[in-house]
């Protein structure tokens, strides 16, 4: 079930994101920030596709367990444990996205539906860059992204423990997708949270969180 390599669509989204990030670093106009909406839309679609494929895999586990409960039953239980943990991580990140939008635009924001589903095309304050940093980084390095980072690392360890030494390609793919190492920028190490979210425009922060959600679904499929 492991695939390891990114699809052409994923590679395209990754390239788009890198280009837009570079434009932001150069303080290019609001149109560049607006383009993040397109990237987020593509990420959301990719995540939806992962969810559909994952559900099909779980149905296969259900059928196998019903036909041979003694042999397939334990594997089904492990699969559903992965599903539960993945859903928890996905929802955790979704709550952060909702909090950022609500704080920036209020609970009546047109970007949010009553059931908490986000419609990011309707975000108005796309270039607001204080609130995301306040929530995710914090004024004293105590923002919620630090807890999110720890949760991602815990989830990654959980998946790798399940795979063990069964599939090195899948393990490497999960390590890469859920990598939270502090990067080195211009010779100096920068905290992962700061690198990702410090003074990041609202739509860029939302897009980064959407990418993490896509990575969660991708690694769920890998496992």
Would you spell out the secondary-structure blueprint of this structure?
Layout lengths: L7 H18 L4 H5 L1 H32 L1 H37 L25 H6 L7 H20 L4 H10 L6 E2 L2 E2 L2 H6 L4 H21 L1
Antiparallel strand pairs: 1-2
Helix pairs in contact: 1-3, 3-4, 3-9, 4-6, 4-9, 6-7, 7-9
Protein architecture, described:
This protein has 223 residues and is mostly helical. It is 70% helix and 2% strand. It has helices spanning 8-25, 30-34, 36-67, 69-105, 131-136, 144-163, 168-177, 192-197, 202-222; strands at 184-185, 188-189. It has a two-stranded antiparallel ribbon. The longest helix has 37 residues, at 69-105.
Short description:
The protein is mostly helical and 223 residues long. The protein has nine helices and two strands.
Number of helices: 9
- Major β-sheet annotation: 2 strands, antiparallel
Low-confidence stretches: none
Q: What does the overall shape look like? A: globular
Mean pLDDT rating: 84
Give the total of beta strands.
2
Distance between the termini: 8 Å
Report the C-alpha radius of gyration, rounded.
18 Å
Helical content (DSSP H or I, runs of 4+): 55-70%
Structural class of the secondary structure composition? mainly alpha
Characterize the quaternary organization of these chains.
Answer: single chain
């Amino acid at each position: 079930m492991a695939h390891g390599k990114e699809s052409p669509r994923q590679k395209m989204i990754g390239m788009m994101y890198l280009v837009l990030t570079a434009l932001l670093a150069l303080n290019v106009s609001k149109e560049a920030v607006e383009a993040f909406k397109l990237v987020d839309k593509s990420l959301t679609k990719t995540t939806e596709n992962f969810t559909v494929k994952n559900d099909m895999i779980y149905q296969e586990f259900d059928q196998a367990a019903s036909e041979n409960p003694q042999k397939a039953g334990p594997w089904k239980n492990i699969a559903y444990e992965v599903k539960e943990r993945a859903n928890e991580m996905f929802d955790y990140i979704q709550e952060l996205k909702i909090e950022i939008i609500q704080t920036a635009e209020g609970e009546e924001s047109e970007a949010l539906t009553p059931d908490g589903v986000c419609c990011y095309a309707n975000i108005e304050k796309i270039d607001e860059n204080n609130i995301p940093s306040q929530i995710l980084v914090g004024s004293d390095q105590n923002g919620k992204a630090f807890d999110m980072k720890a949760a991602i690392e815990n989830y990654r360890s959980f998946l790798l423990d399940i795979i063990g030494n069964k599939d090195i390609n899948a393990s490497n793919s999960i390590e890469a997708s859920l990598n939270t190492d502090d990067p080195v920028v211009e010779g100096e190490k920068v905290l992962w949270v700061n690198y990702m979210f410090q003074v990041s425009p609202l739509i860029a922060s939302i897009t980064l969180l959407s990418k993490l959600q896509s990575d969660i679904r991708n690694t769920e499929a890998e496992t």
